[in-house]
Specification:
Blueprint: H1 24-29, E1 44-50, E2 56-62, H2 64-68, E3 72-76, E4 86-87, E5 94-95, E6 101-102, E7 108-114, H3 117-126, E8 128-133, H4 140-145, E9 160-168, H5 171-177, E10 180-188, E11 200-205, E12 211-215, H6 220-231, E13 238-242, H7 258-268, E14 272-275, H8 278-284, E15 291-299, E16 305-315, H9 323-332, E17 342-350, H10 365-383, H11 387-394, H12 414-422, E18 452-464, E19 474-484, E20 487-494, H13 503-515, E21 519-522, H14 540-560, H15 567-570, E22 576-583, E23 603-615, E24 620-631, H16 638-657, E25 663-664, E26 667-668, E27 689-692, H17 709-726, E28 732-733, H18 737-741
Parallel strand pairs: 1-14, 10-28, 12-13, 16-17, 20-21, 24-27
Antiparallel strand pairs: 1-7, 2-6, 2-8, 3-7, 4-5, 9-17, 10-15, 11-12, 11-14, 15-16, 18-23, 19-20, 19-22, 23-24, 25-26
Helix pairs in contact: 6-7, 9-10, 10-17, 11-12, 13-14, 16-17
């Protein structure tokens, strides 16, 4: 697992080049085929009936009127599930279709297949379901305390999904040594991935009794595993091909249409397409966990951190999804990117009757980074030290021992990133007379600048790259080199999910670098090749890139066995093919009592400096600049890396100021893009980016994961800037206008 260096015969479009994405022009012109564009001869349409209640018992279900509707081919309930009735990524606890009860608003209850999508929707309205509403458990503190209703009756552990305990050092002694102590309570709202392409897929019954599924996903092999169990089929009879993915950000890790469309296809013997509308999409995937957090920092009078005590409470909603991993990740990094000798962290995730929550970009670490960075600014104010200076005095370095007892190997440039941002000139004050767009409220002409104040905020984030805690993570790639006419061409086959992050482009760059050929074909990702793992945790370029690199080098070794000479001459004897499985170094689970263990393979660091202008009378915020610096290891494709950083920063801005799925008594109040607000081009500021390339010693080419770190520090940097402008605590994100105006 050495870093490796590019082959001497690599091409100009290899590793490190700004290579345009092959799907780029197609997407901006509307010619790209997403999964929602799929068609098949004889295709029928599937639709899902969902519960209107967050907690209820199903007393009666009568589908006779729906089945009698002309054009309806099938109406299926839980009794029609051919295999295991429960599925799930980590824990199989979610019913394919609700059985005797529902646990959240939007839970699937029945399926319809019809010859037209409108007929399918009409049939859903004809299904008669009698519910007996039950008390809904919707507050995470009540779920943690117990004594109320259980979301999952009879489950050992009650409503607690997982409790992560981390104990490092001696907190009692540290509290005696600390000269200054600050405490703060912080909240993060429920953020949605808000990808532009809703869930969709096409299931086609196969002649061998199996099913071919074309779907947008982040991990088709894990989909295959869950689907085969619920369909009662062997793995080889459930075959998936990745279709065009319209964004993911963690929201496509869990199964959505896959099992339902397959059930309908196998039942009717017809190809079945399922495609959610926007409102159904809000109910059809998991969201970012809302969080309630308490942080206590103790420091010396000159600003040296002595201890951190943190309590995290995440609302996991009705089913497990990846909550166990999310709360672990949030707890691992609850002390932030700092050297802290004494740490006590308790992370809890609980079941409620709110919508299920799971993976979203930066999973868990986003919430804890917001908490720790907010409390550090509070500590800086009490100490009378500049916030960026306090961070520099305590920034972790290579060799720093984490709260989990693991020493940081490889680069740890938290301080360097902060200095790069600190030393940047601040943006000039806009000419407010020239354009109202320069003011908070933009073109709405809501203010003329009378009450506008500027604020500056900093934050730095750290998280692990890849799967942690002893997961045996692997990725497979197959590479074939042959002649097409007189020209060598390389074919790459992996199951890596292209979600818009650019893995298709990077795989081709690696092949050009390693094999010295310009023509590269990346085959569609499917389950005919070995598992690539999930396009999540900022791992896919590292893992699938390592697999492609290994397969290419195996091809080169086989070519050398044919002798020396031009590549074209060596290939006249026939194609050369190799398959390679890449694995990173072993990690270990943390122990349950003190949370100690060598749990991570690598770490990524990012920092942001936000400059905002706030109309303190109207509560309006304009982010003027969101400068960022990030260690990327090696920029495999600098253009794509910058795109990832800009996108992650935009999602962080959304969480800071506008994005929240409002849930009241278990019911979602704003399942539409009319009421769920995401940043537009009018909301995004200038995002100056500084790439720091410090090669990681264990990864292919020295690369590091880049997709998630921007979401860590962007939100708290903006929140800290708004606090700087207003002097308010603002202990919750997203910050709303009335949070500013009602507290003044």
């Amino acid at each position: 697992m050495a870093t490796g260096t590019p082959a001497r015969h690599g091409t100009a479009n290899g590793v490190g080049a700004d290579v345009p994405r092959p799907d780029g022009a197609l997407k901006v012109t509307g010619a790209f085929a997403y999964s929602s564009d799929l068609r098949w001869d004889g295709m029928v349409w599937g639709a899902t009936l969902r519960s209107p209640h967050p907690s209820a018992r199903i007393v009666r279900l009568d589908a006779a009127r729906a089945r009698a509707l002309p054009g309806v081919l099938a109406v299926l309930t839980h009794r029609d599930v051919p295999g295991q009735p429960l599925y799930g990524m980590k824990v199989a606890d979610q019913p394919v279709l609700a059985m005797d009860r529902v646990r959240y608003q939007g839970e699937p209850v029945a399926l319809v297949a019809a010859d037209h999508p409108e007929t399918a929707r009409r049939a859903l309205k004809l299904i008669e379901v009698e519910y007996e509403e039950l008390p809904a458990l919707t507050h995470p503190e009540a779920a943690l305390r117990g004594g109320g209703p259980l979301v999952h009756e009879g489950r050992e552990g009650g409503n607690v999904v997982r409790h992560v305990r981390i104990r490092h050092g001696d907190l009692a002694r540290a509290r005696a040594e600390a000269e200054v102590v600050v405490c703060g309570d912080y909240e993060v709202g429920m953020q949605d991935q808000a990808f532009l392409g809703p869930e969709s897929g096409l299931a086609v019954p196969a002649g061998d009794g199996g099913v071919e599924v074309y779907v947008s996903s982040q991990w088709i092999h894990d989909d295959q595993r869950q689907m085969a169990a619920s369909l009662g089929l062997p793995l080889e009879k459930v075959r998936l091909t990745l279709s065009g993915v319209g964004g993911a950000f963690g929201g496509r890790e869990d199964v959505s249409v896959q099992i339902h469309a397959s059930m309908l296809a196998l039942h009717t013997g017809r190809p079945v397409k399922m495609s959610y509308g926007r409102e159904e999409s809000f109910f059809g995937h998991v969201h970012r966990h809302p969080a309630r957090m308490r942080f206590e920092h103790g420091a010396t009078s000159d600003g040296r951190l002595v201890y951190v005590k943190a309590r995290l409470l995440f609302d996991g909603g009705a089913y497990t999804s990846t909550s166990q991993v999310v709360i672990a990740n949030g707890s691992y990094f609850a002390a932030g990117a700092y050297e802290v000798p004494h740490v006590e962290i308790d992370g809890y995730c609980v079941y409620t009757n709110n919508p299920p929550c799971g993976a979203m970009r930066g999973f868990g670490a986003v919430q804890s980074c917001y908490g720790v960075e907010s409390n550090l600014d509070k500590l800086a104010r009490k100490l009378g030290i500049e916030p960026v200076e306090l961070r520099l005095r305590n920034a972790m370095t290579t060799g720093t021992v984490l709260p989990t007892g693991q020493a940081v190997e490889g680069p740890a440039p938290a301080a360097e990133l902060l200095r790069l941002l600190r030393d940047r000139p601040l943006p000039p004050t806009a000419d407010r007379g020239a354009s109202s767009f320069a003011l908070p409220g933009g073109l709405n002409n809501t203010t003329h600048g009378e009450n506008v104040r500027r604020g500056v905020g900093y934050a730095v984030g750290v998280k692990a790259i890849g799967f942690s805690g002893g997961v045996d993570d692997r990725s497979v790639a197959r590479v074939r080199l042959s002649l097409s006419g007189c020209e060598p061409v390389a074919e790459i086959h992996t199951a890596a999910a292209e979600c818009g992050q650019g893995i298709v482009t990077v795989q081709a760059q690696i092949a050009r670098t390693e094999l010295g050929v310009e023509r590269v074909v990346v085959l569609p990702a499917d389950t005919a090749v070995g598992d690539a793992g999930s396009s999540s945790a900022s791992r896919i370029t590292w893992m699938s890139g390592g697999a492609v690199q290994g397969a290419c080098r195996a091809v080169r070794a086989r070519l050398r066995e044919r002798g020396d000479g031009p590549l074209e001459k060596l290939l006249e004897a026939g194609p050369v093919e190799a398959e390679y499985e890449y694995a990173h170094r072993r990690t270990h689970p943390i122990d349950p009592e003190r949370g100690q263990g060598d749990a991570h393979i690598a770490f990524a660091f990012a920092a942001h400096r936000a400059v905002v202008e706030v109309d303190t009378e109207l509560g309006l915020v304009k982010v003027v600049e969101l400068a960022t610096a990030q260690d990327v290891g090696r920029a495999m494709n600098p253009l794509a890396v910058e795109g990832q950083i800009e996108g992650g920063s935009a999602q962080g801005l959304g969480l800071a100021l506008m994005e929240e799925l409002h849930v009241t008594d278990g019911r979602v109040r704003n399942p539409s893009f009319t009421d769920y607000l995401i940043p537009t081009i009018a909301d995004m500021p200038s995002v100056p980016i500084t790439l720091l390339e410090l090669p990681h010693p264990d990864s292919p080419y020295g690369l590091n994961g880049v997709g998630e770190p921007p979401t860590l520090s962007s939100t708290p940097a903006i929140a800290n800037a708004v606090r700087d402008a207003t002097g308010l605590d603002l202990a919750r994100v997203p910050v709303r206008p009335d949070d500013i105006t009602e507290r003044r």
